[in-house]
Amino acid sequence: MTSIELLSRLIAFDTTSRNPNLSLIQFIENYLKKYDISSQLIYDETGGKANLLATIPGKLAENGLVLSGHTDVVPVDGQQWETDPFKATIKNDRVYGRGTSDMKGFIAVVLALIPEFLKISLQKPLHFAFSYDEEVGCIGAHSLIHTMQKLNLNPAACIVGEPTKCEPIVAHKGIQVFHCKLHGLATHSSLTPEGCNAIEYAAQFITWLKNYANQLKRNMNDVHFDVPYTTLTSNVINGGTAANIIPSYCEFFFEYRELPNDSAEKIKNTIQDYIDQTLLPSMQKDFDDAKIELIEKAKVPSFEANQDAAFTRLMQDVTNISTIKKVSYATEAGLFQRANIPTIICGPGSIEEAHRPNEFVEIEQLNRYEKILLELVKAFQ
Prior knowledge:
This protein is an alpha/beta fold. The protein has helices spanning 3-11, 22-33, 100-112, 114-119, 139-150, 198-219, 264-286, 310-319, 333-338, 363-380, and strands at 39-43, 50-56, 65-70, 89-91, 94-96, 126-131, 157-160, 171-172, 175-183, 231-239, 249-257, 291-300, 303-304, 326-327, 343-345, 360-362.
């Protein structure tokens, strides 16, 4: 099957992160079986989702290359699509559909190249690592990498095929997402001093976060990133019951995306210190039992490749791109890198199309990436 044919099949599976992905995983498993490649499925706690790990063996047992991609996609809810998002539509030399760029296009190219990979006399194994729930915090990749470690695969390198227009990416920011819950005391608004206004304290906290974000912006920068500093933003808020009731509860979500040279833990500790030393004591002056909960919802580490590493130079040679490129979005690359697997991000399609209505990948990108990936696998030997 061609990349476009395989992409059409993959798009037809609605693997929005809230849904199971087993139908797609089983399709890939059966596809690999046709080439006598066995797969190991690593299930989540519900049994409704799974990672897939498969290997084309080489003469050596270790030092292989991992081709990594996630199988889940973001929702299409509320988006205005001109075509069915779960039916691949080809027009104007593009393939439209949810996940075409992010990142079923990459998986389709990998699968389409299986016959070519089998023709190569592999010295080093080639591993296929397809995960679940990347879009909601890179959840599946943890058990996937853990399984690779248990099997003592010891890969020498990894490609994470996120959409980069086939350009090698050597770094990305981390992302930490928090859910903050403030519990105050409700009263009739005519008796304001008797209550503890959770919304006002949330507003005070959000203002402090904004000021802290400005401090982070002033203190750090890396010109190779499109946004060259650590960002911190409050993105969702909810609270209150009526216009004449002092609100006892307010919740909001905030995130920060830190540069690789910044400490995610230090930022978290600074925020927690503000809560413990300033905000909560102030609330408890109004109401002894006031409470603030800070719940970590997602944590994805930043990533930075060694720019002098042999694998980094190999990717630059294969793509004929030596420009240093770094991105602000997060991927599974940081998890592989922290597992001591040298990693580069490189895949077909554009991140600018990801998550949007009428998402597409250019056919030229799929064709170009086929050549890049095949050349890489050959050169990696």
